[in-house]
Amino acid sequence: MNTKTKRLSIRQFEITPEVLARIRGDIDAVQGEQSKDIRCAYCGRLILRKFPDAQGHISGKCAKCGREYTINVANWRRVPQY
Ligand SMILES: [Zn+2]
């Protein structure tokens, strides 16, 4: 039996006041807007939430099942889970 454990490498970054202000501004910009969940088509895990003005392609990897995907958020419809 393999008893090796994988060490996690976690980098810590200092967030600058400018970046923090930008994040807060982005949150304020969508306050009250209806968001839509985008879930992994393979396992159903929540990947991200999109707002009505979201558009374009994103690429990522599901943290649960590990599958990679590229989707156009403007056209994304939830794939039914069977
Ligand atoms: Zn998944």
Account of the protein in words:
The protein is of the alpha+beta class and 82 residues long. It has a domain of 49 residues. Helices cover 16% and strands 23% of the residues. The protein has a two-stranded antiparallel ribbon with strand order 1-2. The model has no long low-confidence stretch (mean pLDDT 84). The structure holds zinc ion (ZN). Zinc ion binds next to loops.
**Global outline:** flat
Kindly report the spatial arrangement of strands forming the biggest sheet. 1-2
Order of SSEs, N→C? HEEEE
Low-pLDDT runs: none
Q: Ends: how far apart? A: 36 Å
Describe the largest sheet: 2 strands, antiparallel
Number of E strands: 4
**Number of H/I helices:** 1
Structural class based on helices, strands and sheet pairing: alpha+beta
Q: Tell me the strand percentage band.
A: 15-25%
Q: How confident overall, as mean pLDDT?
A: 84
Q: From the alpha carbons, calculate the radius of gyration and give it in angstroms.
A: 17 Å
Helical fraction equals 10-25%
Small-molecule binders:
zinc ion
